[in-house]
């Protein structure tokens, strides 16, 4: 009888309130510092490290951190205007050492570079300039083509060339034999009477008489050990190039900008990592110090670069870019003095299958759960916010770790300079689904990373002519009129981003923000991230509920809330959460729930207002914004 009475009561209440559920799942505590308790090099499927802390981030700082990799070949005015209207405040722009002309008097593409930088100034964009020396063309380089006079089988230590007058021994070399690589095999000596050239290492493939051979002459040698004359020469050339880049930015009227020193070490780094030894076999020098630690050749190159830039351009931030795929190679305290920050490329947004792709699967002792669940992961945030791998970025960007800094640096910044999604890597192959995936990735990754400790995030990338590619701008950009209106031509992710950022209009700098806290109860049956076994519980939607508060000004707040599903290609039904939110310095009188993807306000249940707020809100697998004032 009692059960029947309760059922009738619940039915009657459901006609009054929008959400009524028989099942409740308190997430207690929502903020759990023990979530960080995963010793190196272990990993975990249950520990959720981003739930170890909760901070109210500045809405003003959030807006300044919205960035994108600018990669347009042309039509810059339209592209930059559309990106600025979407809300982007910073562009990552690569100006490689190869852009410097042989005479070192300017840049090969200086007019266009200056135009892009001037447009950044016009639209209020802060540039992050990437300095790089990709081994395809690592520095000022001269090329010429000649023919092979006789066969040279793989393994040969010499070749005969038709044209040798322009060859500079130990600086000229055969290019693009196995990779896009200038001077891949160095010519060490030349007999001009016969065209016979001695090589620094065996030929990696067969060459035939009559074949065309591309010869590159490098103005600067690949890196040698610190203290050698060769290192000094190359380092001086690199620092000169770095200052030329800063001068170009300053010429565009910009005095506050970022300089990121180097891109990924996963490719294009033969000129740097093992330096000259990549060009010789056997190696010709001994590097006694790890290249990314104090005294190493890359570390010393960065130290000199930062010192020179800070002297002439004190408002520039110098960012250590060598660790953006390794994260932990050099401890932050050991970075060169005055380094302002470091950058990361987390990615990991494509399909990953567990347990097949579990980290250290052959070492089960490193799985602290003693359980390897079965699930598919396609997460807009990537993997680096979890402990699915031990190299979680949360180890570096949690509030305690963010206090770390190099010598002579007061405020250390954390950048994500590349992060995005390739729809086919998530098994998404139609245009409509691809744009939806990219829109959810934009919303989730910006809200999450810029709330949890990243200062600036550059989405990769601005443009791709293929809708299934990584770009955000309309693929038909180059066919659009220069005065095309944003509302008519913008893609779904650009519109969703503009909608999201519209909530933050009027944000002001804040010396400190309110310490918002929350109690979370999930209502109704919970979906599962992965299932349990006889000894281990499931991971449920409510376990990965994201509550990300931002403060706009002294009395306005925007809180991003969503279920951080692990496979974003599988839509979920609305999930309802009851939130008791505390910590406001002033009473809250107005509460709304906004969906930036649909540009609509969503009904919610308000239980309590004031300095504490209690609401029941429906959420999905991308951020909706709880707007309070």
Give a short overview.
It is built from 10 helices and 29 strands. The chain has 629 residues and is an alpha/beta fold. The strands form 6 sheets. The protein has an 8-stranded parallel β-barrel, surrounded by 4 helices.
How does the SSE layout of this entry go?
Layout: H1 2-14, E1 24-27, E2 57-58, H2 59-64, E3 66-69, H3 76-86, E4 90-94, H4 110-122, E5 126-131, E6 141-147, E7 158-160, E8 172-174, E9 185-191, E10 196-199, E11 212-218, H5 229-251, E12 258-261, H6 297-312, E13 317-320, E14 341-344, E15 352-354, E16 375-377, H7 394-397, E17 413-419, H8 431-451, E18 456-459, H9 486-489, H10 492-502, E19 517-523, E20 528-530, E21 539-540, E22 545-553, E23 556-563, E24 575-582, E25 591-595, E26 600-601, E27 605-608, E28 613-619, E29 624-628
Parallel strand pairs: 2-22, 3-4, 3-18, 4-5, 5-12, 12-13, 13-14, 14-17, 17-18
Antiparallel strand pairs: 1-19, 6-11, 7-10, 8-9, 8-11, 9-10, 15-16, 19-24, 20-21, 22-23, 23-29, 24-28, 25-26, 25-29, 27-28
Helix pairs in contact: 5-6, 8-10
Spatial gap, N to C terminus: 45 Å
Shape: globular
CATH topology of the largest domain: TIM Barrel
* Number of individual domains: 3
Give the name of the CATH superfamily of the largest domain. Answer: Glycosidases
- Under the CATH scheme, which class of the largest domain? Alpha Beta
Q: Got a strand count? A: 29
Query: Would you identify the CATH architecture of the largest domain?
Result: Alpha-Beta Barrel
Provide the β-strand percentage band.
15-25%
The poorly predicted ranges are: 1-18
Largest sheet: 8 strands, parallel, barrel
Task: Write out the strand line-up for the largest beta sheet, numbering strands in chain order.
Answer: 3-4-5-12-13-14-17-18
Task: Name the helicity range.
Answer: 10-25%
Our count of helices gives: 10
């Amino acid at each position: 009888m009692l059960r029947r009475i309760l059922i009738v009561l619940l039915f009657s209440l459901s006609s009054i309130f929008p959400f009524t559920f028989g099942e409740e799942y308190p997430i207690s505590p929502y903020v759990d510092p023990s979530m960080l308790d995963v010793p190196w090099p272990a990993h975990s499927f249950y520990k959720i490290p981003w739930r170890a802390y909760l901070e109210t981030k500045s809405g003003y700082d959030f807006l300044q951190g919205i960035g994108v990799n600018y990669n347009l070949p042309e039509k810059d005015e339209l592209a930059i205007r559309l990106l600025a209207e979407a809300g982007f405040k910073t562009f990552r722009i690569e100006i490689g050492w190869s852009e410097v002309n042989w005479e070192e008097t300017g840049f090969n593409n200086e007019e266009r570079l200056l135009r892009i930088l001037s447009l950044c100034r016009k639209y209020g964009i802060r540039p992050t300039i990437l300095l790089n020396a990709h081994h395809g063309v690592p520095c000022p380089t001269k090329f010429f083509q000649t023919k092979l006079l006789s066969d040279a089988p793989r393994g040969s230590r010499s070749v005969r060339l038709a044209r040798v007058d322009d060859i500079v021994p130990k600086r000229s070399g055969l290019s693009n034999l196995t990779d896009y690589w200038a001077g891949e095999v160095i010519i060490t000596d030349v007999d001009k009477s016969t065209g016979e050239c001695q090589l620094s290492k065996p030929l990696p493939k067969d060459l035939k008489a009559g074949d065309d051979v591309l010869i590159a002459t490098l103005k600067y040698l690949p890196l040698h050990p610190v203290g050698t004359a060769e290192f000094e020469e190359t380092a001086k050339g690199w620092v000169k190039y770095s200052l030329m880049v800063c001068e170009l930015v300053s010429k565009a009227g910009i005095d506050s900008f970022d300089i990121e020193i180097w891109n990924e070490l996963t490719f294009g780094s033969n000129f740097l990592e093992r330096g000259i030894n990549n060009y010789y076999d056997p190696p010709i020098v001994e590097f006694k110090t790890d290249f990314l630690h104090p005294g190493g050749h890359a570390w010393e190159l960065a130290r000199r670069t930062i010192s020179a830039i800070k002297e002439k351009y004190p408002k520039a931030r110098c960012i250590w870019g060598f660790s953006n795929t390794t994260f932990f190679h050099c401890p932050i305290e050991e970075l060169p003095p005055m380094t302002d920050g470091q950058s990361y490329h987390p990615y990991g947004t494509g399909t990953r299958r567990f347990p097949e792709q579990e980290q250290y699967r052959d070492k089960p002792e490193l799985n602290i759960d003693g359980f390897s669940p079965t699930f598919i992961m396609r997460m807009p945030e990537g993997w680096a916010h979890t402990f699915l791998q031990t190299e979680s970025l949360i180890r570096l960007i949690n509030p305690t770790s963010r206090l770390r800094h190099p010598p002579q640096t007061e405020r250390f910044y954390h950048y994500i300079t590349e992060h995005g999604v390739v729809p086919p890597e998530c098994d998404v192959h139609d245009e409509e689904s691809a744009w939806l995936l990219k829109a959810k990735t934009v919303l989730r990754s910006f809200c999450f990373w810029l709330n949890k400790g990243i200062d600036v995030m550059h989405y990769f990338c601005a443009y791709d002519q293929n809708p299934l590619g990584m770009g955000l701008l309309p693929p038909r950009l180059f066919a659009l009129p220069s005065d095309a209106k944003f509302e008519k031509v913008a893609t779904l992710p650009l519109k969703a981003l503009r909608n999201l950022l519209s909530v933050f209009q009027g944000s002001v700098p804040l010396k400190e923000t309110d310490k918002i806290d929350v109690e979370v109860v999930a209502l109704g049956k919970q979906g599962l991230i992965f299932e349990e076994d006889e000894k281990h519980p499931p991971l449920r939607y409510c376990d990965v509920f994201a509550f990300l508060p931002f403060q706009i000004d002294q009395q306005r707040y925007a809180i991003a809330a969503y279920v951080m599903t692990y496979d974003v290609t599988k839509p979920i039904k609305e999930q309802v959460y009851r939130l008791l939110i505390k910590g406001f310095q002033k009473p809250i009188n107005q509460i709304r729930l906004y969906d930036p993807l649909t540009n609509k306000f969503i009904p919610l249940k308000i239980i309590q207002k004031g300095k504490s707020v209690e609401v029941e809100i429906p959420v999905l697998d991308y951020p909706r914004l709880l707007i309070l004032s």
